[in-house]
Recover the amino acids of this structure.
């Protein structure tokens, strides 16, 4: 079975925007994009979340090349298409952020 979202057609910029919108709805007071040198791709999101009346800094790296390695091992046809892999990576990160914030909202987990 291939990694989640391996069939996505959603561009990375849309996944990134959805993450940013969700962070803001959950109290983010700032979001910073960190770009990969030479490609212009976003390699990490850094953001501040207000927790217990204090801004807490988070960094969310997106190691998309690790996704590429997994897709190759799983013999996904487009594993060597970097733009495709980048989209898949961001879609998975988006799902992870949404799940984490849902757990926080329901008080199943606490933020540090």
């Amino acid at each position: 079975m291939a990694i989640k979202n391996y069939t996505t057609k959603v561009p990375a910029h849309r996944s990134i925007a959805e993450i940013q919108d969700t962070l803001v709805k959950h109290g983010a007071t700032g979001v910073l994009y960190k770009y990969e040198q030479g490609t212009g791709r976003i390699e990490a999101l850094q953001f501040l979340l207000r927790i217990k009346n204090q801004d807490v800094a988070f960094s969310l790296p997106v190691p998309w090349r690790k996704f590429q390695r997994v897709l190759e091992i799983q013999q996904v046809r487009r594993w060597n298409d970097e733009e495709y892999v980048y989209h898949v990576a961001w879609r998975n990160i988006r799902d992870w952020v949404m799940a984490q914030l849902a757990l926080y909202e329901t008080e199943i987990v606490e933020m540090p």
